Request: fold
Amino acid sequence: MRFGKRETLCNLFRIDLPIIQAGMVWTAGAKLAAAAANQGVLGVLGAGSMSPDLLRHHIRKAQSLTQRSLAVNIPLLYHQTEQQIDCALAEGIGIFITSAGSPKTYTRRLKDAGCLVVHVVSSPMLAKKCEDAGVDAIVAEGFEAGGHNGRDELTTLVLIPEIVRAVKIPVIAAGGIASGAAIAAVFALGAHGPQIGTRFAITQESSLHVAFKQAVVDATPDATMLCMKKLVPVRVLKNAFYTQIKTLEDQGASVEDLKSMLGKGRAKKGMFEGDLTDGELEIGQVSGVIEDIPSVAELIARLKKEYAETLQELAG
Amino acid sequence: MRFGKRETLCNLFRIDLPIIQAGMVWTAGAKLAAAAANQGVLGVLGAGSMSPDLLRHHIRKAQSLTQRSLAVNIPLLYHQTEQQIDCALAEGIGIFITSAGSPKTYTRRLKDAGCLVVHVVSSPMLAKKCEDAGVDAIVAEGFEAGGHNGRDELTTLVLIPEIVRAVKIPVIAAGGIASGAAIAAVFALGAHGPQIGTRFAITQESSLHVAFKQAVVDATPDATMLCMKKLVPVRVLKNAFYTQIKTLEDQGASVEDLKSMLGKGRAKKGMFEGDLTDGELEIGQVSGVIEDIPSVAELIARLKKEYAETLQELAG
Reply:
């Protein structure tokens, strides 16, 4: 039965390995998505940090670099969502991963256009709503994940079995997965496969600024923390900007204080432009175990090897 | 190799199954520890909520109920630590699980007395310190665990591989483990076995007040939260007392404000006396998946069955 589970995502997305490369902002452009797709995993473009024009450019470029399945991740919280969806549909994208917002808003339209829809959730209650809205699969994202995060702080280990029990559609586990051993762990918990973010973010092909990649390689296990809980919780690499937020929060800062502190363009400044002092450095808790910047091909070979070894060791 | 790992704890503690029943305050008395030991797992008394005299009573009672290995969990942060250790040594306890405080303080003395010493940690750095202090094994406890918790908020999924890599001594995974599937997951991550808390807390034999046990059975996935981070972080079931703390914390409460709010005897009031309004209800994030109050024997049979099924499914 669980073997069948491991084939589910391959059949659904027409991929060779049941692994999703997360469509992260300022990280997942054409180079990363195409490299991932060419290794047989689902390559995903992160539209959250792209204007519709830039998204079109990345879709076309990625399509020129691979013949395999490509998806687009669209957070439903920016003002250009509608145009991003129009653009991706016009360019022939058939798999949409949506996050934030309600799964009801766009699922019907995307399904009517013949697309697959995956929605990202952080609680069993929202997973059930997704299923009711006709979503094809769930990404269940734990507290250890980088970037924007759920309010209930459910960890991947606790969240996955709860969501697997709550819905009948396939469940993709996200948050804290950067090794073949962790992939085996989430299969054991009942997931149909992993979505991997931070580990793909720290590869040669990701769009992150090289200074940020190196900072993650150098990071200690305690290097990230969830903050901005009163606004929208976000996990970041600790830096001077984080310390300022933390100080404000410890003093009981209001939502307005935090908004004005955050300002505009902080994530771009840190993640894309490499300002490690004043930028917002969104990244996962697994930063502490990441020690190199491999190519996507090297990474996938490593994950496959570690996964096979883990299963063998578990079998005794 | 990993099969060897699964035998390590059995050989170390002379138990049949590589599982530790957590020695939780107001929860793990003679009945729970002896029942666990009689099922072949390591039964642990929670000395943290016991005077030396009460501890002596529980040790003797537990010894009268089982011939198998028994351990004592002693948090190194109360004024009676010295007397608790004297008492446990005098009563023939040979396995000590210490938590909080420095592993340097008592390890030498306990080792000289011929005992095994296990220390609870929440970061790789502290794990290394334990190894250097001569500790025999580590309990690595993730963010999802109930009760007192680490400051770095590392989840079990992220923490276990980091600690396995940091030390050569056996690593026991704790936090978020309440099923055979989760046991398989932590073995996949490289742990030598699980320490199980919340799931043992909600059994017939635990000392928790029945009203609290029922509240955990009724709990939804979002029912717990980590609070008191400025003081000593603690994961509790949300109730009126929690809401008061949360309100204070959101307003930027100081350590002193929190101390005076906490007062004395809150955990006893909630966990042992069943005051679900004003008590401090320490419990793990897995509360959301707990649906019954089995006997320890029923629980162990279930965990073994689920674990075997999970391995079989993973093997395809």
